[in-house]
Amino acid sequence: MTGSRRMTADLTVTEVRLTPVLVSDPPLLNSQGVHQPYAARLIVEVVTAGGVTGVGETYGDSKYLELARPLANALPGRQVSDLNGLFALAATFEVASSRVHDAFDVGGTRGVQTADKLRLSVASAFEVAFLDVLGKAKGLPVHALLGHKVRDRVEYSAYLFYRWAQHPGGEGEPDDWGEAVDPAGIVEQARRFVRDYGFRSFKLKGGVHEPAQEIAAVRALAEAFPGAPLRLDPNGVWSVATSLKVAAELRDVLQYLEDPTTGTPGMAEVAEEAGVPLATNMCVTTFPEVPEAFATGAVQVVLSDHHYWGGLARTRELAAVCRTFGVGLSMHSNTHLGISLAAMTHVAATVPNLDYACDSHYPWQTEDVLTRRLTFRDGCVDVGDAPGLGVELDRDRLAALHERWLQDDGTMRDRDDAAAMRKADPGWISPTLPRW
Ligand code: GKR
Ligand code: MG
Fold it and tell me: Could you give all domains of the chain from N- to C-terminal order, each with its CATH number?
């Protein structure tokens, strides 16, 4: 070999493995109901001719799997560097009309989840796996492929939930967090988050109790952690008037109020008088939703979910749009495992205008598919410099969590917080909005 010629691995995709898993999830409450004892995630492995394998992760409900399968079948023969080709290919797959309008989607735009968002959420796992392969093949961390890190640690915020001590009927895996159903319980939960993970900011998932109780919980947090950034997120279940009342009560302690009401016009009305920034992971989840929201001043912070937005490169495109319009940026989370946390951390490390600590459910997930779980120190995840994502699959764990998915009779494979709630409250139906 001459000095100028270097051996390069063959980065042609030869095989794609899809492994749906069920991971244990605590009884966390939200406006729609309660988390089921297990949540579905999809683990993607992309194998290349040169023997390098990359991993990705995304939502694991059936609608994602239905799209992931044909996409996976179409990838062999393609180059992992061809990210544009990946998204062009994903865009050609049909989404069944029954999947486009989804009655339950707390984290998305209720009822209007677009086919595009579904395709992007699926393609994001392949994009991450492609980047993992590329990084491993080049000996570079994923953040270096995205322009290089601008920080060595990414800060996350404690994600507080009202919760029960156990799932109805004692289903699922037990934990020792106990219940948190009132302000004292929420403060105690926050103290444990600080003790165990060092978090310095707090987000409370609201929309569970009537607003006065949630105001009291945020006030209790403000008293227990003076000066700490606080957020409250009722997932859009308040009217504009209620949102304004809550904003007036809490504007002195909130860093931002997240999705107080549903829809961009309502958010714009609230934003005008709230006196506190509004954040969203509901009314802006795709690029077509950006113009109206930014033009009307409906949101001051976009919470990106790299799955919804179509991966890490597109998250950086969103960051550029936010920077251009002077809108803040942070990250949204749903139940996820370490592969997604690693992906979030790599991209977050590269975005100069990541203005707020990111959300993560990860501390609630005690199970994982990795040989070594990621850890939080002082509320932060260190940005690794190992090639690729810097994570390694534990094949035994993966097999065990997949086996749980195989054994499930179908009830846990699709998220349904209202059905889980009905086990405790048979008359429960998802609320008509606005609830308060
Ligand atoms: O996990 O219950 C939950 C959350 O409510 C989640 O579904 C949301 O998508 O965390 C999310 C949010 O910030 O809206
Ligand atoms: Mg939210």
Answer: 13-143+396-407 (3.30.390.10), 147-391 (3.20.20.120)
User: How far, in Å, from the CA of 193 to the mean position of ligand 1?
Assistant: 18
- E-state strands within 25-128: 29-30, 33-34, 38-48, 53-59
Q: Which of 117, 203, 332, 336 is catalytic?
A: 332
User: If you take atom 1 of ligand 1, which residue's CA is the nearest one?
Assistant: 334
pLDDT in tens, 307-363: 999 999 999 999 999 999 999 999 999 999 999 999 999 999 999 999 899 999 999
Q: What's the 160 CA to ligand 2 centre distance in angstroms?
A: 12
pLDDT one-digit tens code per residue, 155-164? 999 999 999 9
Q: Residue of the nearest CA to atom 13 in ligand 1?
A: 332
User: To 10 degrees, the CA torsion angle through 432, 282, 271, 320?
Assistant: -170
* Annotation says 361 is catalytic: no
Q: Which residue CA neighbors atom 8 of ligand 1 most closely?
A: 107
Which of 63, 205, 306, 307 is labelled catalytic? 205
Atom of ligand 1 nearest to the CA of 108: 9
Neighbours of 224 (CB within 10 A): 17
CB-CB contact of 372 with 394 (8 Å): no
Helix (H) or strand (E) run with residue 256 in it: strand 254-258
Helices 83-90 and 62-74 cross at an angle (nearest 10°) of: 120
Q: What is the pLDDT of residue 234?
A: 98
* φ/ψ of residue 361, rounded to 5: -80, -5
| Rounded distance between C-alpha atoms, residue 284 and residue 301, angstroms | 10
H or E segment to which residue 273 belongs: helix 264-274
Cβ atoms of 350 and 146 within 8 Å: the answer is yes
Q: Which long-range contacts (CB under 8 A, 24 or more apart) does 288-296 make?
A: 289/109, 289/264, 290/321, 292/264, 293/264, 293/267, 293/268, 294/325, 294/327, 296/264, 296/265, 296/268
Q: Which residues line ligand 1 (CB under 6 A)?
A: 28, 30, 106-107, 205, 233, 235, 281, 332-334, 359
149 given a catalytic annotation: no
Picking from 421, 406, 428, 436, the residue whose alpha carbon sits closest to that of residue 60 is: 406
* CA–CA gap between residue 158 and residue 153 (Å, rounded): 16
For residue 257, list its beta bridge partners: 232, 278
Angle at 218 between CA 180 and CA 196, to 5 degrees: 55
